[in-house]
Amino acid sequence: MALTVLLDLRLKPEAVLGAPAMLRDILTGTRAFEGCLGVDVLLDCDDPAHMILLERWASADADAAYREWRAGAGATELGSLLASAPQVSMFETASDI
């Protein structure tokens, strides 16, 4: 079953200008990862230090493999831009509602 993941990011104020370039590089790898169906970046209209990544995955297993890769060989410096730990929420589509 497909999975939608919301990754809620709060940037350090001094990282706001440099974040898009780093995210472009990071998301190239994310979008190319097996099972990734797409990633959209949502920018807060009122707070330039707040963004949400909307990720779509073919399955929970594909997402888990991606998270494992990012925790190891695919690690990035994204954490250096963040004011707080990212909040991750995972959703399945309800087909009976």
UniProtKB/TrEMBL annotation:
UniProt domain ABM: residue ranges: 3-91
UniProt-recorded Gene Ontology molecular function terms: monooxygenase activity
Keywords: Monooxygenase, Oxidoreductase
Pfam family, any one: ABM
Protein name: Antibiotic biosynthesis monooxygenase
Lineage: Bacteria, Bacillati, Actinomycetota, Actinomycetes, Micrococcales
